[in-house]
Specification:
The chain has about 325 residues and is an alpha+beta fold. Helices cover about 40% and strands about 15% of the residues. The chain has two domains: about 60 residues; about 240 residues, no CATH class. It has twelve helices and 13 strands. The strands form five sheets. A five-stranded antiparallel beta sheet has the order 5-10-4-3-11, with helices on both faces. It has a two-stranded antiparallel ribbon with strand order 1-2. Strand 8 and strand 9 form a beta hairpin. It binds iron/sulfur cluster (SF4) (2 copies). One iron/sulfur cluster binds next to helix 7 and helix 11. One iron/sulfur cluster (SF4) binds next to helix 6.
């Protein structure tokens, strides 16, 4: 397809601006015909520059500690398929997180849970705002939901987009045997959110000022998290959420089959989604032992702070 310089009838205003840039800066002969692909490339490059600048300042204003923009190419086949299923025009995932400060783990379970939900919901609000910002820049985007929907895979709960795996692929950290993302700065104390976007990135990249460092995996395989779990919820297959005390406090074993049935049906989940925040704000997570017991618990940022109590029970 070709775009002819003159006349400008039917040409969008920004395309005229693009022509001016091409003619003036690239010294194209005024009689030349400009391929529309060149104009599109110019527009995409400009958009990417502007969005990148916005991302840095946007996250600073939102109080986000780390972020990474991860190309779909950097993900495993399983995660790439899940992202595309969630958002068919996806090209990348912007994953970001905030620290749960060490003192939060010293709080009584109810207060600790309330603080974690507050941080998680603030991240969720940031994701919604970011998606709106990207859409305003003509970049298709969809925030990853905080609560529902989720997927059931082999009888286990999984996010529709596995943000921990995406964050690891983006260089923010690595997964430990406790199935938590371990980061150099915050250890396992990072809560995550994300936005799937139609913005193409050349490679997964971190913004140096805010992202974690790419280093050797922090999990040394000591197995302390597995041994310390009072419910035997951790194993080689990952975490069995229904055995974890934070979930079993709300879903007793007798109700697990019904809960699995509900979570296996997207229509039922859709109906329940508006209720999820109400439940989360009233929940109490009595256990964090697989996080607090990890030798990486403090991370670089938490060093010098006293260790939290080891048993909330
Ligand atoms: S939070 Fe507690 S019960 Fe749940 S997996 Fe971790 S150690 Fe086990
Ligand atoms: S407690 Fe040990 S095995 Fe578990 S995540 Fe931490 S370093 Fe890895």
């Amino acid at each position: 397809m070709w775009f002819v310089k003159e006349p400008y009838h039917g040409v969008q205003c920004d395309m005229v601006c693009d022509l001016v840039e091409i003619y003036s800066e690239r010294k194209v002969n005024r009689d030349e015909i400009i391929p529309i692909t060149l104009i599109k490339t110019l527009q995409i490059n400009r958009l990417e520059r502007s969005v990148e600048l916005d991302l840095t300042s946007f996250f600073q204003e939102e109080g986000v500690d780390v972020f990474s923009e991860v190309s779909l190419d950097a993900l495993s086949d399983e995660d790439r398929d899940a992202v595309v299923h969630f958002f068919p025009t996806a090209q990348s995932v912007i994953v970001f997180g905030r620290e749960v400060p060490v003192p939060v783990y010293r709080m009584p379970p109810k207060e600790k849970t309330r603080e974690m939900v507050r941080i998680a919901e603030a991240l969720d609000t940031t994701a919604i705002r970011l998606a709106a910002l990207l859409k305003a820049e003509q970049v298709p985007a969809r925030p990853v939901p905080l609560y529902l929907p989720v997927k059931m895979v082999n009888g286990r709960i999984q996010g529709v987009v596995r943000l921990k795996q995406v964050a690891a692929a983006g260089g923010l950290g690595s997964l430990g045997r406790n199935t938590v993302l371990l980061t150099p700065r915050f250890g396992p104390r990072l809560l995550l959110s994300g936005v799937v976007s139609g913005r193409r990135v050349q490679e997964s990249r971190q913004v140096k000022s805010s992202a974690g460092r790419k280093e050797a995996p922090l999990c040394k395989g000591c197995g302390r998290c597995i041994r310390t779990c009072p419910a035997g919820a951790l194993g080689p297959e990952g975490v069995d959420a229904f055995r974890c005390r934070d979930v079993s406090a709300w879903v007793p074993p007798i109700l697990v089959p019904a809960a699995k049935w509900i979570l296996g049906r997207s229509i039922v989940q859709k109906c329940m989604a508006p209720l999820a925040p109400w439940f989360a704000r009233r929940a109490t997570m009595p256990c964090s032992l697989c996080v607090t017991g990890c030798p990486n618990f403090s991370g670089d940022e938490g060093k010098g702070q006293a260790s939290p109590p080891q048993s909330p029970h």
